[in-house]
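Many introductory courses stop at the sequence. We go one step further.
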Amino acid sequence: MGEVSKGPKEIEGERERGRLREREREREREERERERERERERERERERERERERERRGGGGGRRERERERERERERERERERERERERERGGGGEREREREREKERERERERERKKVREGESERERERV
């Protein structure tokens, strides 16, 4: 006996199941994104609360300014992360992402080199004394 070919109803049923699976994956992806956004918002709120607590206790003005700068940096990083997420969802953004990663790695390498130079300079300073 040969194989029986599928009829139009069976083919359409498979297509419909495929569409349903795709919609389900999309819903799950959106839910994960909403959850990540809620978590980021909770983190921002905790950070604001810690900042208010520090303000209440008083403290060095310089420390508050450094803290605000760190917060701004974290916010910029979160924005970059959201942008990367949008690129991934759009698809095709992989090359830009890889280029960004390579640039970051090069920057970290330059920073390591600068650190080695600074340590070498401080070592020479100690030897002179």
